[in-house]
Design goal:
With 169 residues, the protein is α+β, with helices and mostly antiparallel strands. The chain is 25% helix and 34% strand. The protein has helices at 2-10, 18-24, 47-57, 102-106, 121-130, and strands at residues 36-43, 60-62, 67-69, 74-81, 88-94, 110-118, 134-141, 149-154, 160-165. Strands 1, 2, 3, 4, 5, 6, 7, 8 and 9 form a 9-stranded mixed sheet that branches. Helix 1 (2-10) crosses helix 2 (18-24). The longest helix has 11 residues, at 47-57.
């Protein structure tokens, strides 16, 4: 990250706050260093139909739990990596015809989003906006995360990112 800040400074950025300058120029977000990859989400028609094969194909363990989230209008299930250096995977299934993932599924489903766990959701959203990303869903509690809030942002190239608020201590 230091080399990116150097490049930003060479372009005449504010020396006192190079991270802010990068954001204003449409650079990266989550520069505060608190964003950690939490999981990769895949949209499928039926979690129960594909879960065992999915777990085997990515060398992950699955506890068989499927969580219904009426707020997000989806069912989700998490797959823990055998090697803890790898990310968690999430399967997402629409919970009805009004689910926000139904159109994605109609196009074939598959890799849908990346999720970062962050300390401050509002700060993360502000950084994302400054970096040119668009907020597509404001903070809301998520059943799968014990009520912790999530928000959704999207890049100009249509990369969907979920932000998960870390437990406040």
């Amino acid at each position: 990250m230091a080399e990116f800040m150097t490049v930003a400074n060479e372009r005449g950025s504010n020396e006192a706050n190079p991270a802010h300058s990068m954001l204003a120029e449409g650079g990266s977000f989550l520069l505060s260093g608190n964003g950690v990859l939490h999981h990769l989400g895949f949209v499928v028609k039926s979690i129960s139909d594909v879960a065992e094969e999915f777990a085997a194909s990515i060398s992950a363990s699955w506890d068989g739990e499927i969580t219904y989230d009426p707020i997000q209008r989806v069912r989700v299930s998490f797959f823990g990596p055998v090697d803890q250096r790898n990310p968690v995977f999430e399967l997402v299934e629409p919970a009805g015809d009004d689910s926000p993932v139904i159109n994605f599924l109609k196009k074939g489903g598959g890799l849908h989003h990346v999720c970062y766990e962050i300390d401050d959701l509002e700060q993360g959203l502000q950084e994302a906006r400054l970096a040119g990303l668009m907020t597509v869903a404001l903070p809301a509690p998520a059943v799968a995360f014990g009520g912790r809030r999530i928000a959704w942002i999207c890049s100009k190239r249509r990369l969907l990112v979920e932000l998960l608020e870390r437990n406040k201590r």
